[in-house]
Fold this sequence. Notes:
- The protein is of the alpha+beta class and 92 residues long.
- It has a single domain (2-87), classed as Alpha-Beta Plaits (2-Layer Sandwich), CATH 3.30.70.920.
- It has helices at 2-6, 22-30, 56-67, 84-91, and strands at residues 9-17, 35-40, 47-53, 73-80.
- The chain has a four-stranded antiparallel sheet with strand order 2-3-1-4, covered by helices on one side.
- Strand 2 (35-40) and strand 3 (47-53) form a beta hairpin.
- It starts with a helix and ends with a helix.
Amino acid sequence: MADEKLSRNQAYVLLNVDYKHQKNIINKAESLSTVQNVKTMYGIYDLMIILESDDMGAIKKTIDEDIHDLNGIINMTSLVTVGTKDVHSILE
Length: 92
């Protein structure tokens, strides 16, 4: 089970948002199937959305369509990882 979890694709989406829309962004993001967690942050970014899926296409769709469509986002930075089995195949 632990190896299966390590092989899943993950993405971290860092957002600057209009404060008036923050609660709505959190609620809508939490309803998306690939979203594992939404965290409020202090510092450069306001929110971090953590996504996880075996299907990289599902993560891409969530970022490119679902999150981009949310009202109140000022700036967005996406950090996308690949599963460890993908990394091992690249390094071989």
